[in-house]
Design goal:
Layout (H helix, E strand, L loop, with lengths): L2 E7 L3 E7 L6 E8 L3 H11 L2 E8 L11 H14 L4 E6 L3 H11 L4 H4 L2 H22 L1
Parallel strand pairs: 1-4, 4-5
Antiparallel strand pairs: 1-2, 2-3
Helix pairs in contact: 3-5
């Protein structure tokens, strides 16, 4: 078994989360600027046994794709070409950003920490990964 890597794709940053090797616990990994993501992923995947990647699908509350889909589709295609040995799935990320901000706020974090967009991105990726794992377990 290997890790599952979750990616929350944004226009400027990509939030990353990962499971442990037994795929039990999802934890925040990092937030990477989009210009550095391929170098980062190459190194991370080389050093860690990644079995699968999950990319958040940006869907509006009405179920239709959001504008951010224009970043996600090309990313998924390039990921498949760059890492053909790693399965990639997409998963509805509809409310992860809202839940991430709520979780950070409820943690008692100060205002400066609450406004840290990089923190919100990796928390969103973690929530995406937890949701994906729960869905997979219940399917």
């Amino acid at each position: 078994m290997g890790r599952i890597l979750a990616l929350d794709i944004g226009q400027k940053r990509i939030g990353l989360a990962v499971t442990d090797p037994l795929q039990i616990i999802a934890t925040p990994l990092d937030t990477i600027h989009v210009s550095n993501i391929w170098e980062y992923l190459g190194k991370y995947i080389k050093e860690n046994q990644v079995q699968m990647a999950v990319v958040g699908l940006p869907v509006q509350s009405n179920g239709k794709p959001s504008d951010a889909m224009r970043y996600v589709k090309p990313f998924v295609k390039k990921f498949q070409q760059t890492f053909p040995h790693i399965a990639i799935n997409t998963y509805d990320e509809r409310f992860t950003s809202v839940m991430a901000h709520a979780a950070i706020r409820e943690s008692g974090a100060n205002r400066k920490v609450r406004q840290d967009k990089a923190l919100a991105d990796k928390v969103s990726a973690t929530l995406l990964l937890q949701s994906y794992m729960l869905h997979r377990e219940n399917s």
